[in-house]
Design a protein that fits this description.
- The complex is a heterodimer of chains A (107) and B (117).
- Chain A is an all-beta fold and 107 residues long.
- Helix content of chain A is 0%, strand content 50%.
- In chain A, the strands form two sheets. In chain A, strands 2, 4, 5, 6, 9, 10 and 11 form a seven-stranded mixed sheet that branches. A four-stranded antiparallel sheet of chain A has the order 1-3-8-7, with no helix packed on it.
- Chain B is mainly beta.
- The chains are: A mainly beta (107), B mainly beta (117).
Chain lengths: 107, 117
């Protein structure tokens, strides 16, 4: 099983801030990592796959980087609609695993 | 457009079973694997397993082995997830989610399963 450590669990920020979320793997997964955004009461939505490829329709203020064991999701200029919970997920091996989530809240 | 439409909310007693359906449309059903992921109230996402709609093969998380069964009906483009021996800890929203080359690109709307005596 590949264990994932996502940090921070809670991030307080203001509109316009640049924020970064980290996801660390217990073993290397090359670039087999996705990021999802989830708003309250809604299903998650895909933001990024293959560690750094932006899903169609996702704003360019979102970006992903990393490979191997350390990955980062960056929101360059936080907008009001970005306050949500973010999850990383590895698809290198089974069982698929998710990070614990990072809630981005208004400061 | 791709749509995954799940069955409605369920209330079950401890020890019972629940079967959640997920009807796919807008794409070739047998060309994409389907995951099941659940989320307990206020908690994170938990992967339960995956089914290949083409041949019906499955892979389950060890935690659910022996309690979960995933099936499909190609005639109606529907996948099913049945969870047995329900306990209060199984209270969660259950999602079906389409696999695209590994990552998940589409999610169902979720089905709330409440286990309560």
């Amino acid at each position: 099983v590949i264990w994932m450590t996502q940090s921070p669990s809670l991030l307080s920020a203001s509109t316009g801030d640049r924020v970064t979320i980290s996801c660390r793997m217990s073993q290397g997964i090359s670039s087999y990592l996705a990021w999802y955004q989830q708003k309250p009461g809604k299903a998650p939505e895909l933001l990024i796959y293959a560690a750094s490829t932006l899903q169609s329709g996702v704003p360019s203020r979102f970006s992903g980087s990393g490979s191997g064991t350390d990955f980062t999701l960056t929101i360059s200029c936080l907008q009001s609609e970005d306050f949500a919970t973010y999850y990383c997920q590895q698809y290198y091996s089974f069982p698929r695993t998710f990070g614990q989530g990072t809630k981005v809240e208004i400061k | 457009q791709v749509q995954l439409v799940q069955s409605g909310a369920e209330v079950k007693k401890p020890g019972a079973s629940v079967k959640v359906s997920c009807k796919a449309s807008g794409y070739t059903f047998t060309s994409y694997y389907m995951h099941w992921v659940r989320q307990a109230p206020g908690q994170g996402l938990e992967w339960m397993g995956i089914i290949n709609p083409s041949g019906g093969s499955t892979s389950y998380a060890q935690k659910f082995q022996g309690r979960v069964t995933m099936t499909r009906d190609t005639s109606t483009s529907t996948v099913y997830m049945e969870l047995s021996s329900l306990r209060s800890e199984d209270t969660a929203v259950y999602y079906c989610a389409r696999a695209s080359s590994g990552w998940i690109d589409y999610w169902g709307q979720g089905t709330l399963v409440t286990v309560s005596s």
